[in-house]
Design goal:
Helices cover about 45% and strands about 15% of the residues. With about 325 residues, the chain is of the alpha/beta class. It starts with 15 loop residues before the first helix and ends with a helix.
Length: about 325
């Protein structure tokens, strides 16, 4: 039975690499938000009632939204991977193996560090040598092809309420910061905190800055951005579907559980956090792969299985 010890969920605290990843994400988010143009919000068909929070005119408050299964159905990196596969970044057998790995990963219900390290290395090897501008351009196309129709109207209404109150709204995700920034701009949000892949002269080096923006790293990113923006976290709000984001949710004065997984739903009820569920069906199973497949590299982790192909070569 000792060999199955990794199946037991383990609590992670922030590490030096988490802090580095968080600070890098905050810096990238502030830089990207200055370049984003505010788009006209698309017509909203949600009839979700306007929440009593946020407080209009409170410029010391902001909102932080997880992306996967909170703002968008499924995982951004999975949808991005579909687009990369369509553009022949990797082959069908790698895509099939990646899908199998993620299905197994979901059934196991826990992140195995060695498995995730291999996935991150694989994804980073795919984008190494590609230009940032190339992946940004592809990301714009992929958003239109696979992501635009998967935005939860209810969650978007919540984000718009913060914007209407004069507050900034940030995505916080393990997805690559470039992908997250595209989504934020398309939704008319302020900007995005995401995993930062190192680049030199506009070309990806195949390394991350710190680690994927997941779990404690998200909280560190929010903390760093709040300090830089002069925000009062007790007056801020955070929204997520995953128990992995409890560190981020616990950081703010107004935590929301959106389409929550079982652990987060229980945790939120115990603490009387607000819950919103925009899914249909009794259990409303999640679409796509877990955010923690946050293999985090710019390829969005979608090429995780490609490591075998590289090794065979």
């Amino acid at each position: 039975m000792a060999a199955l010890g990794w199946l037991t969920p383990r609590r992670r605290s922030a590490t030096a690499r988490s802090v580095l990843a968080g600070e890098a994400a905050a810096e990238a988010a502030r830089k990207s938000s200055q370049e984003l143009t505010q788009a006209e919000p698309e017509p909203e068909d949600s009839k979700d009632p306007e929440p009593e929070f946020p407080v209009a005119g409170d410029d010391l408050a902001a909102a932080f939204f997880d992306l996967d299964n909170t703002v968008m159905q499924g995982a951004a990196i999975f949808h991005f991977g579909r687009g990369l596969y369509k553009r022949k970044f990797f082959q069908r057998r790698e895509l099939a193996r990646f899908a199998w790995q993620q299905a197994w990963f979901r059934l196991a219900g826990v992140e195995d560090p060695e498995h995730m390290q291999d996935a991150r290395d694989s994804a980073l090897s795919i984008v190494k040598g590609h230009r940032v501008s190339e992946l940004m351009s592809i990301g714009e196309e992929i958003y239109d092809e696979y992501m635009a129709d998967r935005i939860w109207p209810g969650t978007r209404a919540l984000a718009q309420a913060h914007l209407d109150a004069g507050q900034k709204v940030w995505l916080v995700t393990a997805a690559p910061v470039e992908t997250a920034t595209i989504i934020a701009r398309r939704l008319g949000l302020t900007g995005a905190l995401g995993t930062v892949a190192e680049s030199m002269d506009g070309v990806y080096t195949g390394r991350l800055v710190g680690e994927p923006l997941h779990g404690p790293a998200k909280a560190e990113a929010v903390r760093a951005l709040a300090a830089a923006e002069g925000l009062d976290l007790d007056r801020c709000a955070a929204y997520s579907d995953s128990h992995n984001d409890i560190p981020m949710l616990s950081l703010v004065g107004h935590p929301y559980a959106i389409n929550p997984d079982t652990k987060l739903a229980r945790y939120a009820r115990e603490r009387e956090w607000r819950l919103r569920d925009y899914r249909t069906g009794r259990k409303a199973a999640k679409v796509g792969i877990p955010a923690a497949a946050g293999v985090g590299a710019l390829a969005g982790g979608t090429a995780a299985a490609v490591a075998l192909h590289r090794r065979r070569r």
